[in-house]
Specification:
The chain is an alpha+beta fold. The protein contains 14 helices and 18 strands. Strand 16 and strand 17 form a beta hairpin. It is elongated and about 90 Å long. It binds one RNA strand of 76 nucleotides through helix 1, strand 1, strand 2, strand 3 and helix 4.
Length: 494
RNA sequence: GGGCCGUUAGCUCAGCUGGUAGAGCAGCAGACUCUUAAUCUGCGGGUCGAAGGUUCGAUCCCUUCACGGCUCACCA
């Protein structure tokens, strides 16, 4: 792989020769007077400007060199004129400083004949030498796999990548601020759990050596956050990194961030009102406008978001009235009558609630672009949610659907310990029958509930999806700095 | 997990019906004092993802494998 013509070897040779001349090519620090963005706003004629950054471009014209520096704030052109320094220094820059190296430069701001604001360099210093060449200056790094595996290159080469991650940070901050301002306290709950609960999902399994027990990575923070409420906290939230051992595709990653909050004495209706205020505030802060552009669509958050029950949506899209099909078999018959294909759904294994959910996902959800609330979920899909007082087959629950994605899932929490036990027992039975995603019986959580819990409404949001929505991305890997990828072993054998 | 597609120089990409590979950028040597993907001359750089198979001959056809992308299913 390496020979004398290989760029990497050439650069290593350069380092050797730099070191032999008594210069350390890896400095420990650097002072500057401006970052590059601020330097780019200085008046021509400003003297003694000290800058540093990574060299991104170098154009040599014999006795004049144009180059481009990049730092976190931006880019600025620099120019070296052979008249402005000892010839040896000029030659050194020409021969020994490569694209990708970090340099310090000192000089005066001026405007080139072509009008570009530029630093005229009188003095410079090599701060750190790179040995691998950067990707090509015009196309940069394009391939999603390379960009994900070598995110640092993606960040260097594609300014929109850096902007996207800065936007992610801002969104998290705005979410956090809003919750803080509304009296919520940020808490931290365990990632390693003996019984992964709070969602219907397959967990990652690991092992604790000294306790000699299997542990699981959390699939949701829900039951721990509710323990906090039982313990007297009234409003808590957590940005919870969660892990689900399921298939990967553009809208699912193994490790994702779930924001959950819990508020004592609220029901799901209170929470719907809050949600609308909350999300509108975030979008306004981050985006400036309540109408966002997403791919070829416009998504409008500005109006009052409509709410639909499962029943209404399914009547609208299929003509089937859930109230007229009390049993799963009745519903199945109606589905068949209308030639609606639920391909690959194993209708024998799933219950009525799940069948309704599948039907909704097939016929209604793909058409739900603008924000809307979905309410009255089948109770057997919501083992931790409160049963509706008027209709015991549905839960006091809502989802916010945007762009066919379930962005928010929230409900009035079930706080009746006897009923909670029964519901979890039923889940445990389903689990025994082979439903890997049925919820786990968590005795400790029920015991907590038996000591008494106030009325609670809980709320959860898939942060990565929300960010993808606000950054116009279709693949969640674009909004996670270092998404999980299968290790690439080919490079390790060299 | 299934289906479809992809993997060629450091990067971005060509490569015809099978005759063992090209360009641009980057690099090296040289010219050049205003470039904006600078230009000009010359040069070097490849296990064509991997392993088998068919063939006189494979980047190309076949099989298997690896990695990825899209998609279906599960899910947020």
């Amino acid at each position: 792989m390496s020979n004398q013509h290989d760029e990497r070897s050439i650069r290593i040779e350069k380092i050797k020769s730099i070191k032999e001349s008594g210069i350390n090519p890896y400095k420990d620090r650097c002072d500057t007077t401006h970052n590059l963005e601020k330097a780019g706003k200085l008046e021509p004629g400003t003297k003694d400007v000290e800058l540093c950054g990574r060299l991104m471009l170098k154009r040599v014209f014999g006795k004049l060199i144009f180059a481009s520096l990049k730092d976190f704030s931006g880019r600025l052109q620099i120019a070296l004129n052979i008249k402005d320094m000892e010839q040896e220094r000029f030659k050194f820059f020409q021969k020994m400083i490569d694209i990708g190296d970090f340099v310090y430069v000192k000089g005066e701001i001026f405007r080139t004949e072509k009008g570009e604001l530029t630093l005229r360099v009188f003095d410079y210093k090599l701060l750190s030498k790179a040995i691998n060449p950067l990707p090509e200056k015009f196309h940069g790094l394009i391939d999603l796999e390379s960009r994900s595996r070598q995110r640092y290159l993606d960040l260097i080469m594609n300014t929109e990548t850096q902007e996207r991650f800065i936007k992610r940070i801002k969104i998290l901050k705005v979410l956090r601020n809003f919750l803080d301002e509304n009296g919520f306290l940020e808490v931290e709950t365990p990632v390693l759990q003996a019984k992964p609960s709070g969602a219907m999902a397959k967990p990652f399994k690991t092992h604790h050596n000294s306790l000699d027990i299997d542990l699981f990575l959390r699939i949701a923070p829900e039951t721990y956050l509710k323990r906090c409420i039982a313990g007297g906290f009234e409003r808590v939230y957590e940005f919870a990194r969660c892990f689900r051992n399921e298939g990967m595709d553009p809208s699912h990653i193994q490790e994702f961030t779930l924001l959950e909050f819990y508020c004592a004495y609220w029901n799901y209706r209170d929470n719907m009102l809050f949600t609308q205020k909350f999300i509108k505030h975030i979008i306004k802060e981050v985006n400036g406008s309540l109408e966002i552009e997403y791919k070829d669509k416009k998504i409008d958050f500005s109006s009052d978001w409509p709410e639909y029950t499962f029943r209404e949506l399914i009547i609208e899209h299929t003509g089937i009235d859930l109230e007229c099909c009390e049993s799963k078999d009745d519903l199945l018959e109606e589905i068949k009558k209308r030639n609606i294909e639920l391909e690959e759904v194993d209708v024998d294994k799933i219950g009525r609630g799940n069948l309704i959910d599948q039907l909704y996902k097939k016929v209604a959800r793909p058409k739900m672009i603008n924000p809307q609330f979905l309410i009255q979920h089948p109770i057997d899909l919501s083992p931790l949610a409160r049963k509706n007082d008027d209709n015991p087959s549905v839960a006091d629950r809502f989802q916010l659907v945007v762009n066919s994605w379930e962005i928010v899932n929230a409900y009035s929490e079930l706080i009746d310990p006897v009923e909670q036990r029964e519901r979890l027992v039923r889940q445990a039975e389903a689990r025994k029958k082979g439903d890997e995603e049925a919820m786990i019986m968590e005795e400790d959580f029920i015991q907590c509930m038996e000591y008494g819990m106030p009325p609670i409404s809980g709320w959860g949001m898939g942060i990565d999806r929300f960010i993808a929505l606000l950054t116009n991305q279709e693949n969640l890997r674009e909004v996670v700095l270092f998404p999980l990828m299968r290790p690439d072993n080919s490079a390790e054998n060299t």
